[in-house]
Amino acid sequence: MALAEMKDIWRTYEMGDSLLHALRGVSFSIDQGEMIAIMGPSGSGKSTLLNLLGCLDTPTSGEYLLGGRDVSQLDDDALSEIRAREIGFIFQSYNLITQLNVVENIEVPLYYQGLSEHESYVRAVELAERVGLGHRLKHVPTELSGGERQRVGIARALASSPLIVLADEPTGNLDTKTGGQILDLLEKLNDEGVTMIVVTHDARVAGITDRTLHLVDGTLTNGPVRQT
Questions:
Q1: pLDDT of 17
Q2: 182-188: long-range contacts at Cβ-Cβ below 8 A with a sequence spacing of 24 or more?
Q3: Which of 17, 103, 127, 210 is the most exposed place for a label (fewest CB within 10 A)?
Q4: Across residues 85-94, what is the average pLDDT?
């Protein structure tokens, strides 16, 4: 059974008297331990698809199965619980809390897990070391480089041991060298069993994933598309 599966997903928005079909019958699955990239031009529906995968939105029609459970029509409280426990997010802009240090930022998702203060700290330190930040535990985001901030974001995404990690343009704010280092880290984590979906414009991502899905005008296509 697939870890996550989208079946004939449509997402339609009302725009005055007209309808905008952001996604049109999207279907695909991802297996445990797999890493896939989702690519496509601006406006192709990547952000809409990411929001659905991350349970930040629900489809107009179709089914989204996560861990064998249909989550496509759950209410906000149920979706919030799923986001807290079963989905890890990595953002282009890092989304770190500036007043918190490395360990404290990684601990944020653990507040919802019922861990003791000690257990939460130990887990966060382990994750910081796992992403190469064992020597920066007490530094706040303003004292970190862009690559280090993204490493904190990656560790935070792993904190709750989620079913799946969603990365939104994880190299978008980084220079070529640092972006390559982040891709190396993501590949390493995937080799260790972390299941990932990476939405990106970065063609290098395709080189480290098991496969690439190409999205055009809300529809999955079979081949590469010109990036914009």
A1: 87
A2: 182/147, 182/150, 182/151, 182/154, 183/208, 185/131, 185/132, 185/151, 185/154, 186/35, 186/154, 187/35
A3: 17
A4: 94
Q: How far apart are CA 172 and CA 167, in angstroms?
A: 11
58: its two tokens: 């629900």
Handedness of CA 22, 28, 31, 33 (dihedral sign): negative
Interhelix angle 146-158/117-130, rounded to 10 degrees, is 130
Report all structural domains of the chain as residue ranges with CATH numbers, in order of start: 4-218 (3.40.50.300)
Cα separation of 190 and 74, whole Å? 29
Between CA 190 and CA 49 the distance in angstroms is: 21
Bridge-partner residues for 23, per DSSP?
Answer: 11
DSSP secondary structure code for residue 15 in this structure: E
Please give the angle made by the CA atoms of 55, 61 and 161, to the nearest 5 degrees: 20
How many CB atoms lie under 10 A from the CB of residue 96? Answer: 23
Is the distance from CB of 154 to CB of 186 less than 8 angstroms?
Answer: yes
Rounded to 5°, the CA angle 214-200-215 comes to: 20
